[in-house]
């Protein structure tokens, strides 16, 4: 059971999607029905909630205020439901985590599996996206916390903990530099190389250095 009105559900969907059509597709309802609810609310509130632009709908200041409060109310309702369960002697909990693809496998994924096995009453909701998308989900309270690259480069977030990651280089065993204990960017300047797409490495430690120094002109290939 949801305590939130039909308008609240429709409004939140449009706020997230920025479009009546996309919100309608997500909710499996007609765009006209959603628009009718929003127009009625704007008339009742006496202020527009969205700017109607050629590329879609953008929240006004009033719309942003309503959306922020709605997200807070939804989160508080989830906590209230958990407290109801505790009153009945039920031990339950739900945590939503947003994380980058690099953490979706390996040691971190194994640690999550251990948590799920040890705390079977805990429901974990995982969402995988790039750092920017995860940051947006944290700001919008779509997830409880996020695990991203370059958290200090994301405005409006509180960084609770961070780990520095070393940048690695992969090469053939017969490469003259393969036996080196450590390498600098200058050591690699004369070699042909492959780097990830810009969106993948710009937030990584060293990513900005690769871009700013413009190393390896004419010798760079990009992974798709």
UniProtKB/TrEMBL annotation:
Organism per entry: Raoultella terrigena (Klebsiella terrigena)
A GO molecular-function annotation: DNA-binding transcription factor activity
Record's protein name: Cyn operon transcriptional activator
Domain HTH lysR-type: residue ranges: 10-60
Pfam families: HTH_1, LysR_substrate
Keywords: DNA-binding, Transcription, Transcription regulation
Gene Ontology annotations for the cellular component aspect, listed alphabetically: cytosol
Similarity field: Belongs to the LysR transcriptional regulatory family.
InterPro entries (UniProt xref): HTH-type_LysR_regulators, LysR_HTH_N, LysR_subst-bd, WH-like_DNA-bd_sf, WH_DNA-bd_sf
Domain of life: Bacteria
């Amino acid at each position: 059971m949801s305590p939130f009105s039909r308008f609240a559900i429709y409004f939140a969907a449009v706020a997230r999607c920025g479009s009546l059509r996309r919100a309608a597709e997500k909710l499996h309802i007609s765009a006209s029905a959603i628009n009718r609810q929003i127009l009625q609310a704007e008339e009742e509130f006496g202020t527009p909630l969205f700017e109607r632009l050629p590329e879609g709908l953008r929240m006004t200041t009033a719309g942003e205020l309503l959306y922020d409060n709605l997200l807070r109310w939804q989160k508080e309702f989830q906590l209230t439901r958990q407290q109801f369960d505790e009153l009945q002697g039920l031990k339950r909990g739900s945590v939503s985590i947003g994380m980058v693809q690099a953490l979706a496998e390996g040691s971190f994924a194994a640690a999550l599996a251990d948590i799920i096995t040890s705390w079977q009453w805990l429901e974990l909701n995982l969402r995988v996206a790039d750092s920017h998308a995860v940051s947006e989900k944290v700001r919008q309270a779509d997830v409880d916390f996020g695990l991203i690259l370059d958290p200090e480069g994301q405005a409006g977030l509180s960084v609770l903990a961070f780990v520095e990651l070393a940048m690695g280089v992969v090469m053939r065993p017969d490469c003259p530099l393969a036996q080196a204990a450590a390498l600098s960017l200058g050591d690699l300047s004369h070699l042909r190389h492959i780097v990830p797409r810009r969106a993948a490495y710009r937030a990584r430690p060293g990513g900005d250095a690769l871009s700013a120094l413009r190393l390896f002109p004419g010798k760079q290939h990009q992974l798709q």
